[in-house]
Amino acid sequence: MDWGRAKSVLIFAFLLLNLVLGYQLWSNIREGLRTSADVGDLRPETQALMEEKKIKLGTSIPSETPALHDLTYKVKVGLGKGERHELKTPVDSKVVFVDKELQASLGGVIPELDEYTLGAVLENEFILYRMAEGRPMFDVKLELFYSNQKITAYKQDLIELLPSDKQAAQSVLSATKVVTSLIENQLKNGAVIEEIKLGYHGQIFNSDTQVSAPTWRVLLEDGGQYYMNAISGEVVTE
Amino acid sequence: MDKLKTIVLTALVIMSLVQSYLLAYSMPGLGVTASPLQPYVQPEPMGQEEKVENVIFPEDMVLHLGKGKHTVLYPATNFYNLIFGKIKSREFKGFQRSPAVVVDWEDIRDRDQGLELRFGRGVPVELLSKVLKLEGDVDFMNDVINRIWIYKSSDRDEVRTYFFSTDNITVYESVKADLTAQDVQMYVGYGEYQVSYRKVGDDMYIPDGPIESMQSTVGYDSYSPEQMQRYLFVDPGVTREISDRSGTQIYTDGKRGLQVEQNGRWISYTDPVALQGQEDNESQNVYAAIQFINQHGGWDGMHRFVHAGSFEQSVQVLRFQQYYGSYPIIPQDPFLFGSMKLRLLQGVVSEYERSLLTLQKKPQKRDIRWLPGGDMVENALEHYSRRLEVTALYPALLASPADKNKMLLAPVWAVRLLDGSQAVLLKAIPGGYKPQPGEPGGAPLVKDTPTTGSGGGIGLTDGRLNLPGGGSGDAGSAANESGGATADHNDEGTSTASK
Fold it and tell me: Domain boundaries in chain A?
């Protein structure tokens, strides 16, 4: 028996095996690192349905599934009931896009400004959401009104996050599942999905304390909004 | 060379093992997201279940005796049950659509013997067909009707049956109804010995004399908010309790909300749902609502489905009116009681309001109270501040909390306004006193020798005393228990007027 030959054959075989495993591992890691997916990652049936209902995806699908838990917070200035404050010296509206400049120009005027991050740009206003653990709370807003490229006034919901109790965090549903469910059950023909974002949302009560649950928010091009509870998968429109 | 090969081979074998391990344990999708769910507890059933057939019945029945005489029967009274039971066994077929104006209803009302089954704000025909045997075309089945009028034409000996649409323009005649002239005569005959009523305004009937009713003090049991919470939340373990600015308790899991008001006596549950862009089907919503109530708290006694009649953005509000005996219960502001309200979107409940109290079957105390009749009611109605909005007049029970775990149900004359809200028009005569003929709220004075039978016949209008309408006083204090309170305890709200 020629041990040398046998070893060569075995080396060759294991080399091939290692290559195959290595490729698998590499593509898995790449999958994990990638923060978004697109239409091609949906199930073929869903894609067929999208074609049939002429639903388009105008954005990528986030692929993160972090573990989150409910938020409980105390409302200091009523949600949506805040007063409109006029700025004494209007500020250039460009600053809103750069955090540092925003801090420098309005940080002294608007309380807790560093807790808010730009969420949407409308015709006359910027909407900033209060962030909690790096994710937006869709119910708690800071509105910056602008005209002629100057920010002239603001309206703010002020809250205080309460420490969450022992309740354990749970992994959220993946955005692909959310999109699939929406396409299959909710979206009308011709809908265009514009944004998919993970944040917090809850039913608002006439109360000082509110609860927000991890929620995927899906925005449509026509202004439609869907909130899907990221734990239970229940859908709400507003 | 051989040594090198050995080393390379060993290295390759180890590497393949390591890679296999990594692949196996880091595969996305293999990681199961275990959720720390509370153990599921099957809640004990609460309340009784109900079927759609039992929540659809006429609000009242008007019997036309001919010669301008009328009388009204209320639910759960003997004659009402008898007539409705018989109508339920008849078949109505061959519906023909026509404008309502082709028949002179005023004429028929006073001249021809007949009966009207009135459904208040209306009932969808599709639902009504679960109670009555109806066979009609799609147009008819999709309509909402508020009245069935069956009469015996006086010139010919034939029975005509009309279903009135809520649009007030259309009627449907059932040309193949298996009702005979004898049937109608028999039904009308039941009204011979009842208090006679006269028509005022638009389809409102006022009794000529006082009608007997019962003021009851009823004990109640109460569900706890925690019990309700177990029924309404998928996972009660993750709900949080917060409290309202006014001290109301709120349970929420971030999506659903359960607000407990009135010291734990009333709940209002909200569960936002997604619009699916489909048409709302009221009948389907009613089925879904009944099913939902069956599973979430059940029914406390008899309820009547009340058609909302307004479609705002495909959202539908349904109401179930609670009855005690023959009369609907209306709450005395700010007390909340007497009806369940639901909002449904395509068969999914998004709002649910109800009381947590359940009335005991047997009242702890009952006293006779006479509801005034005649001019006193008519005057009160004429001088009512929102007279133009009044669409119906009927006896009801005004519910207000009494001592501990007791509720007082006091008979009143109630009106329903255009928007569907109910209000008290006139309270009962205090102290169980029965107004005599000629007194406020009593039967009209009779000049000639009174005929036996009904209290207040025809042609007596000139003999009436004209009395102010506001002399009713307060029915609340039952201090002077005068005579009459020891009369027989019959279960009917109305009784024959005795002279």
Answer: 1-34, 38-70+164-229, 75-159
To the nearest whole number, what is the mean pLDDT of chain B?
81
A238 touches chain B (CB under 8 A): yes
- The answer for A 80-139 residues in CB contact with B (under 8 A) is none
Strand partners for A142: A128, A156
> Model confidence over B396-453: pLDDT tens digits?
999 998 888 899 999 999 999 888 889 999 998 888 788 888 787 787 776 554 444 4
Average pLDDT over chain A, rounded to whole? 84
Query: Tell me, which fold does domain A75-159 have in CATH?
Result: TATA-Binding Protein (3.30.310)
Please list every residue in chain A whose beta carbon sits closer than 8 Å to the beta carbon of residue B19.
18, 21-22, 24-25
CB within 8 Å of chain A, chain B residues 229-258: 234, 238, 240, 242-246, 248, 250, 252-257
* β-strands A192-201, A56-57 pairing: parallel
Residue B318 banded pLDDT, cuts 50, 70, 90:
confident
Is there a cis peptide before residue B328, judged by omega within 30 degrees of 0?
no
pLDDT at B482 over 80: no
Q: Does B3 touch chain A (CB under 8 A)?
A: no
CATH code of B225-263+266-355, in short, is 3.30.310.160
Check if A148 contacts B (Cβ < 8 Å): no
A93-136 per-position pLDDT tens digit: 888 888 888 888 888 888 888 888 888 888 888 889 999 888 99
Q: For residue B477, what are the contacts with CB-CB under 8 A and spacing of at least 6?
A: B430
Query: How far is the alpha carbon of B21 from chain A, nearest alpha carbon, in Å?
Result: 10
pLDDT of residue B23: 82
Does the distance separating the beta carbons of B28 and A205 come in below 8 Å?
no
pLDDT in tens, A33-69: 665 666 777 778 888 888 888 888 888 888 788 888 8
Q: What is the spatial distance between Cα B73 and Cα B59, in angstroms, rounded to a whole number?
A: 9
The closest alpha carbon to A160, from A210, A200, A101, belongs to A210
Instruction: For chain B, give every domain's residue range.
Output: 1-34, 52-194, 211-217+362-481, 225-263+266-355
State the average pLDDT over residues B104-109: 90
A20 in B contact zone (CB under 8 Å): no
Both tokens of residue B80?
A: 């009402």
Alpha carbon distances (Å) from B288 to A233, B320, B356, B432, B436 = 22, 13, 21, 43, 50
CATH of A38-70+164-229 given 2.40.128.690, 1.10.3720.10, 2.30.280.20, 2.60.210.10: 2.40.128.690
A189 touches chain B (CB under 8 A): no
